[in-house]
């Protein structure tokens, strides 16, 4: 399972990176002669109501969706590690303040927070990344804090202090590298979630704006013609499904490696 | 010119722990001095404050423990009044420490060599390749076979004895003036203990090091230390020349401690 999932992720990644090569047509080229054609040799996943090739749009959409997923989670990981390491290492009032802030952030229903921020700042790829990143770091911060709390009592940290190491050095070299395992698991699971949130936002029309294709807005595009052209919604939907599923399976496989005791 | 130069003088040191049940006096008013080039031992049972004393010399006591008074003079400057930055320059370069547990004293995600090289780079303004050279030299000096392999090994790939040798190499690498050995052989089995003690003996005499040697083992103290202090419940019970203390103990506690050793070897 995990191998199949990684292969699928790899395939999508390669397709996204090589989008100009992998796509059979220009994703925004309209063709009034072939509107809403079902999957055929020429258009393997069919065309939409403007005659655009769905396969090419999906491949370019993968670029946007994955890019948003990676950058957003990358941001969440950086914020989470920073906050978690600070709270865990310094403890005391710094810990209390940061962790209560985390609790507060966790109280907001994420999707409404994102909706509110996007309607204020306006929808753009950049804003979506920021907002997804800024609402996903709390779990990672808690993970890192818990790891740091146990790691900082270990002898090698004391040994490093004895050798005259500065706090920043101890955090960067001794604590974070040892705490990174669970963070990776969490981040992998998070990428699937981020892709889903992006798709949902685009589907609601406040995510990636047309004509830039993303999986969510291709899906939304096909909604109005669902009765006559099933391929418009089914294929991008399947891509979202399998990609998110693959990230979840990979994340769980990584967790089994990191924490074998949880394995069933 | 003074005849005896003291590298370290601890005067009336007090370390208290502030707990919810009140103040625990972990170290109560102890004083001792270490002469340059000599090995000074602290012996005592678990919980007598030996390690705490050692750690306090580098001012590495964390809350709820606190140094409540006294002076720690290193080369006649008081370490307790120094700021963190100045202390970091002393830690590892002028004073270094070897812990009891070699298994957990190295960071598991980096190679042994890398960690020693970093210690060199922290305190000596040398290039990375020069630091590597120095590391090789000290690993060799600590009688590690297959220096190259050990350098690139991760901590879990080495035996406890080799790890402790590497730890000693790391403590020596910046040529410190004082080395604190906190039960350096306690976690090792008997044959390895002897090897490590031989190595320490050899290095101490060759390099003329000043050592604070902490142990609960009278046999090791007798072998290694010129002078020794017996600690009990945070106080120094007796502090004298090792030979005269062993032959002719004055305090009741020292006598009973020595009795227990005899009972064991019987």
Describe this structure in words.
- The complex is a heterodimer of chains A (264) and B (266).
- By secondary structure, chain A is mainly alpha-helical.
- Chain A has one domain (2-12, 62-262): MetI-like (MetI-like fold, Orthogonal Bundle).
- Chain A is 72% helix and 0% strand.
- In chain A, helix 1 (2-17) crosses helix 3 (54-90).
- Chain A is elongated and about 75 Å long.
- The two termini of chain A are 15 Å apart.
- The model of chain A has no long low-confidence stretch (mean pLDDT 87).
- By secondary structure, chain B is α/β, with parallel strands linked by helices.
- Chain B has a domain at 1-86 and 207-266: P-loop containing nucleotide triphosphate hydrolases (Rossmann fold).
- Helix content of chain B is 39%, strand content 28%.
- Chain B has ten helices and ten strands.
- Chain B has helices at residues 50-57, 84-90, 112-123, 128-141, 147-152, 160-172, 190-207, 218-224, 242-247, 252-265; strands spanning 6-19, 22-35, 39-44, 65-74, 77-78, 95-98, 178-182, 210-215, 227-232, 235-241.
- In chain B, helix 3 (112-123) packs across helix 4 and helix 4 (128-141) packs across helix 6.
- The radius of gyration of chain B is 19 Å and the shape is globular.
- The termini of chain B are far apart.
- The mean pLDDT of chain B is 86.
- At the A-B interface, helix 8 and helix 9 of A face helix 2 and helix 3 of B.
Radius of gyration of chain B: 19 Å
- Average the pLDDT over all residues of chain A and give the rounded result: 87
Tell how many strands the DSSP assignment of chain A holds. 0
Helical element count of chain A? 11
Into which percent range does the helicity of residues of chain A fall? over 70%
- Structure class of chain B: alpha/beta
Question: How would you concisely characterize the structure shown here?
Answer:
By secondary structure, chain A is an all-alpha fold.
Topology:
The complex is a heterodimer of chains A (264) and B (266).
Chain A: H1 2-17, H2 19-22, H3 54-90, H4 92-107, H5 110-121, H6 125-134, H7 138-151, H8 155-162, H9 167-203, H10 215-223, H11 231-258
Helix pairs in contact in A: 1-3, 1-11, 3-4, 3-6, 3-7, 3-9, 5-6, 7-9, 8-9, 9-10, 9-11, 10-11
Chain B: E1 6-19, E2 22-35, E3 39-44, H1 50-57, E4 65-74, E5 77-78, H2 84-90, E6 95-98, H3 112-123, H4 128-141, H5 147-152, H6 160-172, E7 178-182, H7 190-207, E8 210-215, H8 218-224, E9 227-232, E10 235-241, H9 242-247, H10 252-265
Parallel strand pairs in B: 3-8, 3-9, 6-7, 7-8
Antiparallel strand pairs in B: 1-2, 1-4, 4-5, 9-10
